[in-house]
Design brief:
GO terms for molecular function: ribosome binding. This protein has 4 helices and no strands. It is an all-alpha fold and 132 residues long. It has 3 domains: 40 residues; 44 residues, no CATH class; 42 residues.
Length: 132
């Protein structure tokens, strides 16, 4: 059924607590990777992507903190999130948003694959006509 207002507030607070906690963990790991990078070690592709994502999350945190610090501005947060959906750091995303992004990426990849298949088929027809 429906959740009470108190339960919704508690769930939202847990969501933000977990988001900040995950961001803190990511920041510590990124700091270690940055230290290794500054001392001449090479990062793997996965580590580099994680470092870039964490840096982007820290830059996204600045406008997000304005909403948290300024009184009553958190009521405008949903409006700004509709206008700028990528404003929140990645650790604050819900599962439904992650699934939605994944579906969009998959659809884009499928469209690209279909285009490439059509292109290759057209090139094969041309080559066959040229050689035949």
């Amino acid at each position: 059924g429906k959740k009470s207002l108190r339960q919704k507030i508690v769930d939202e607070l847990k969501h933000y607590y977990n988001g900040f906690h995950l961001l803190w963990i990511d920041t510590k790991v990124a700091a270690r990777m940055l230290w290794r990078l500054l001392h001449g070690q090479v990062l793997t592709r996965r580590e580099r992507r994680r470092l870039l994502r964490t840096c982007a999350d820290l830059f996204r945190l600045v406008p997000f903190l304005v909403f948290v610090i300024v009184p009553f501005m958190e009521f405008l947060l949903p409006v700004f999130l509709k206008m700028f959906p990528e404003m929140l750091p990645s650790t604050f995303e819900t599962e439904s948003k992650k699934e939605e992004k994944q579906k969009k990426r998959l659809n884009a990849k499928l469209e690209l694959a279909k285009f490439l298949q059509e292109t290759i088929a057209e090139m094969a027809k041309r080559n066959k006509a040229d050689t035949g």
